[in-house]
Amino acid sequence: MQTDLDPTDLEILRILQQDATLTNKEIAFKLHKSIATVHDRIKKLKEKGYIKRVVAILDRQKINKSLIAFSQVLLKEHTAESLGEFELEVAKFSEVMECFQMTGAFDFILRIATSDMDTYHLFLRNKLAKLSNISTVQSFFVLSETKSETAYPL
Fold this sequence. Notes:
It is elongated, with a radius of gyration of 20 Å. The chain is built from five helices and four strands, in the order αααβαββαβ. Strand 2 and strand 3 form a beta hairpin. It is α+β, with helices and mostly antiparallel strands. The protein has two domains: 7-47, Winged helix-like DNA-binding domain superfamily/Winged helix DNA-binding domain (Arc Repressor Mutant, subunit A), CATH 1.10.10.10; 67-141, Alpha-Beta Plaits (2-Layer Sandwich), CATH 3.30.70.
């Protein structure tokens, strides 16, 4: 845990992770602090990079992104340049929600969101497979979602 976060900062982060639409006034009320104090602390948390951005979390079923695939990618080459090039290219694909470089048998794992299997197939053939350094892609499809959290325990 970072040492420059005090209990009030941690509580602000906990509250914002649960509902970032709360006003400074509402947060101040919950914490028994002044609105100005909460405002200043949130501003500093943003400046220090603890709060990267504030977003709305959408229901993927309602926006027609019901197919989630986790695709493991093995590259042909593993130079710093080829790894960086892959990361830059894959980050351009709107279907790729997350990209992690991994240890183990594969180099990267991607979380991909599409509307259906046909759309995923088009993504694989027309985008991912066209990257020059791809050796192998192995995909796994989500059948059900038991838990999906965006808040980190603090």
